[in-house]
Amino acid sequence: MLTTLTELTIVGILILTLFAVLGLVLVFMERKVSAYMQIRLGPNRVGYKGIAQTLADTIKLVVKEGLTPNGADKFLFNLAPFIVMFGAMLLMAPIPFARNSQIWDLNIGVLYITAVSSISVIGILMAGWSSNNKYSLLGAMRSGAQIVSYELSAGLAIISIVVLTGSLKISEIIASQETGWWIFRGHIPVLISFVIFIIAVTAETNRAPFDMAEAESELTAGFHTEYSGMRFALFFLAEYVNIFIVCAIGATLFLGGWMPFHIGNWAGFNHLMDFIPSSIWFFGKTFFLIFVIMWFRWTFPRLRIDQLLNLEWKYLLPIGMFNLLLMTIIAIMGWYF
Amino acid sequence: MGLGSLLMLIICGLAFAGGGIVLSNVLSRKSSNLQKGQAYECGVPTIGKSWVQFNVGYYLFALLFLIFDVELVFLYPWAVVVKEVGLPALIEIVIFLFILFLGFLYAHKKGALKWM
Q1: Helix (H, G, I), strand (E, B) or coil at A28
Q2: Half-sphere exposure of A136 toward its Cβ, with a 13 Å CA cutoff?
């Protein structure tokens, strides 16, 4: 009992540290990637090449006054950041950070992920509604419609991998990729699922080109217009942590999680690849996907809300359903490598 | 680590968000101002309340989402056993998705997917 308690405490502290570090690193990465894509320098004054810039920003946000507007529903207004934070926290449970290091390897891991990832939309709707601000309400409504719509495509893409592995357990899904990652072994249907998954998670995390919820030029800041100081920082942090989580899930399902790059039964080559630690594989793949999502932001123009919903309901969802059937045929016939 | 880990994560979230807000309450300087508490609508005085009746379009999409999300939940147990069951599973899912697709076409025909 006592050992479990110590274990949980240590894991808890590690997770809190991970949250803080992820926030700092991802915000800095976002700013630097954006800067280099636009041929400018980005933050470069605080610390070496601007490394301490996010730290300075965090301190600024902490010492800012947290305002609550007069007309707001005070209870829900204060509750919303907590809900969003819980959503991000709970999603950390089934993420495989490295070999044998997973907080809870539950046997319905994939289902758990899809279930818990829809908590944050409640927080967003709550924040938008309770602010008593038209921009917030509009932003929250758009965000809600967008997140629930794209959840379907993400779910279908995830199920197509479950069809191949025959298990919902994260560790078994990773173990099934020992002879090669699914993206290489599963022919074209897996590639289609992967593309659908990436598009869907970009929309689910409210990233450009799907950032209707906080389109600066029309809605000021969307659902968190009225939030300031630390409460705003919590929304901001949860957003970046959510990007990390969805990319980690994508890396786990399609790119093998912490599994090194293996080719069939080339024992020598596989052994050589095993020398690179599994955590480096995991974080490498995850950060590659995060980079791709940041890349999207500076490549595609923002979609209008009707175009956004059209893309999901008239293209991605039917394609996803058809793709699932193709995948079933491939899985039953054993046509994958 | 079981359910305890979930409890731990919830406590972590509470500690992170609550601790941050309490810390910022302690550290921040407060000032009062008549206009500070007003809704931020880019300087223009707010007209009326924000809690008004809203576009029904969002409601339709929420309903459609509910239908398809339940469908997804049905697919999960199927997806786990499909490789063992083989061909019957494929035939069944074709029928299932076909019926669902008919419903989808109906919604499309009725104009539920069109933005108003």
Answers
A1: helix
A2: 27
Count helices and strands (H / E) in chain B. 3, 0
Contacts of B93 in chain A (CB under 8 A): 324-325, 328
Token pair 């894509």 is found at A37
Contacts of A80 (CB under 8 A, 6+ apart): A123, A124, A126, A127, A130
Residues of chain A in contact with residue B80, where contact means CB-CB under 8 angstroms, are 162, 166-168
All structural domains of chain B with their residue ranges: 1-28, 54-116
Residue A291 pLDDT: 92
What is the ipTM for the molecules in this complex? Answer: 0.86
Domain positions in chain A: 1-63, 69-333
| pTM assigned to the model | 0.90
Cβ-Cβ contacts under 8 Å, B40 against chain A: 69, 133, 135, 220, 225-226
CB atoms within 10 A of CB B22: 11
Cβ of A132 within 8 Å of Cβ of B49? The answer is: yes
- Condensed to tens digits (0 to 9), the pLDDT of residues A187-219 reads 788 899 999 999 999 988 888 788 776 666 667
Distance CA A195, CA A324 (A): 14
Task: Tell me the two tokens of residue B34.
Answer: 């008549």
Treating both helix axes as pointing N-terminal to C-terminal, what angle do A134-165 and A109-116 enclose, rounded to 10 degrees?
A: 170
pLDDT digit string (tens) for A49-103? Answer: 888 888 888 888 888 887 777 777 888 888 888 998 888 888 888 888 888 888 8
Structure confidence by residue, pLDDT tens digits, A20-29: 898 889 989 9
CB contact under 8 A, B39 and A66: no
Which residue of A16, A148, A314 is in closest CB contact with B12?
Answer: A16
Structure tokens at A93: 């449970």
Q: Which residues of B touch A86 (CB under 8 A)?
A: 10, 13-14
Distances (CA, A) of B65 to A119, B59, B72, B113: 15, 10, 10, 11
The residue of chain B nearest to residue A319, with distances taken between CA atoms, is: B101
Strands (DSSP E) contained in A6-161 are none
Query: Of the given ranges (A4-18, A58-72, A318-332), which has the lowest mean pLDDT?
Result: A58-72
If one looks up domain B54-116 in CATH, what number appears?
A: 1.20.58.1610
Tokens at residue A64, please?
Answer: 């800012």
Give Cβ neighbours of residue A87 (< 8 Å, ≥ 6 apart).
Answer: A116, A117, A119, A120, A123, A238, A242
Gap from B36 CA to chain A (nearest CA, Å): 8
How far is the C-alpha of B81 from the C-alpha of B73, rounded, in Å?
A: 14
**Within 10 Å of residue B70's Cβ, how many Cβ atoms?**
10
